[in-house]
Write a structure and sequence with these properties.
2 helices, mainly beta
Amino acid sequence: MMRGSIIAFVYATIFVVLSNASHAQCCSVGAGFSSLPASLQNSALESGNLLAVGSNNKYTYFKEYYIEDRAVENGLTQEQKTITSTLSIMKSLFTDFLIQADISYIPYFYQDNGLINIDKSALSDIKFNIGYSFLRNYDDAFFSQVSAGFKIPLEEESDDIISYERGYSISLMSSSMKRFDDIESILALVFRYEHFLSETNDKQTGDNYFTSVMYTKILNDWTLSAELNFLTKGRDDLEGVAYNDSGHSVLQFSPQFGYLIGNFIVGMRYDLPIYKYYKKYQITPSYSISLNLNYIF
């Protein structure tokens, strides 16, 4: 297999983490600015041309309640399960720019409240993003970029499908990547900020801050990655007053692997929270599993 294809494949697996950056707690977990991994932009840096489509399907299971960093007795919701599906298309422009569009859908939302079980589905949102590659050092195999985007909700917030992030938002992101050809590895660093613009049901959603560090090892047509990511979500406001049972910080360990089959990229990811700090009383995710399917034209 040509080395260029493997490099494009590796880039396509590295920033799958960006899909988690804008989704902190509930049914929107896993939609994000990238079901199609945003690092495909870096293959465009080397080839000058990219068109790709992809899908991401993420299952998240909620069980434990936390107050600050302590697990406490469960509340009204006994358990919660969600699946979020996202379709994406990505296209490079003029070698330095990359545009991406995502549409997200929640095909499955289940909540056991003891007396009443909720089982629903809903459209989530549409996202648009444009990235600019401002640093490309081929001699040192070092690449950096910045990007900006916005999100448009597709349905009004439901009292049943409790989404803390269904409003309009804008986001800013920076990413850097260093390739080590001698050991067939890549190290990547990502920062992302999301600010919510509008109120829904008299609620203003708190801002998100996301950081990720990922190491990826290339093994022929396979990649194995180990990632640490840290997400902080600010408190929401209800009618201008801070809502105490909101806002949190989560540190996750996310192992993942990918496999290249021709122009297809297949990847799986497991998110395991290793530290959780929740302001006041909130149900928290126990784990999530993602399946990514992408095709590069």
